[in-house]
Amino acid sequence: MSISVLTASATAAFFVPFNPTPKAAAPKPFYPGPFSPSEVGSTGLPGDVGFDPLGLANFDLLLDGATDKERSAAYVMRDYRDAELKHGRFAMLAAVAWPLQEKLNPLLAAKWHIPNLVAETGGLSPSVLNGGLEQSIIPSAVVTFMIMASLIEAQGLRVKQEQGDSWLPGDYGKFFNLKIAERGTEQFFSLQSGETWNGRIAMIAILAYVVQEAITRVPTIDTIPFF
């Protein structure tokens, strides 16, 4: 090999740009499609019995998912649990208030001379399907309730931001903490499971109230034997 060939090879090698081996990209969260196994069943969350036949947990439809498309599946499941707890708590309140207002409102209206808000609907609770939501103080009461719920939600978001990875779904800070059990104990986990299951039952109950009254036009209170 001649000296000119060696010189040309060295010169070419000098001017070739150096391309180091690229680092492996960080693995992205894998969300399989519908009907595929999801994180449900392995989350360790209270009340997780592995029931997700449609694979709904495989989709990040939450607000944080709009800004972070690579969120961990664990964070997605945690936020879904937070949403479930919120709906369950509202449902537990509604499951009691729905039949009670059908029972008590006519009695209180007769005694205190206040509007009977279930008279227009034939004894049914005012609702989207039953009607009667335009009466008296109902619109302002709904708006007031929404404002209060928004303030509580804002408090929850502040607590979530402050606590970071240690945040638990449904935690709204010290003001809402009844201190029934120490966080992290078996008793605390058991109470969390109880709240989750009671919330699920309440959501089913509310759905049953709505469907039953819409179809039969019979007030829920009249279907409860001890009333």
UniProtKB/TrEMBL annotation:
GO biological process: photosynthesis, light harvesting
Subcellular locations according to the entry: Plastid, Chloroplast
Amino-acid positions noted as binding chlorophyll a in the UniProt annotation, renumbered to this chain: 84, 87, 89, 195, 198, 200, 212
Superkingdom classification of source: Eukaryota
Main location: plastid
InterPro entries membership: Chloro_AB-bd_pln (IPR001344), Chloroa_b-bind (IPR022796)
Residues annotated for chlorophyll b binding in this entry: 31, 153
GO cellular component: chloroplast; membrane
Keyword vocabulary terms for this entry: Chlorophyll, Chloroplast, Chromophore, Photosynthesis, Plastid
Gene3D superfamilies: Chlorophyll a/b binding protein domain
Pfam family, one: Chloroa_b-bind
Chloroplast listed as a keyword: yes
Single GO MF annotation: chlorophyll binding
Record keyword Chloroplast present: yes
PANTHER family hit by this protein: CHLOROPHYLL A/B BINDING PROTEIN (PTHR21649)
Protein name: Uncharacterized protein
Species of the source: Prymnesium parvum (Toxic golden alga)
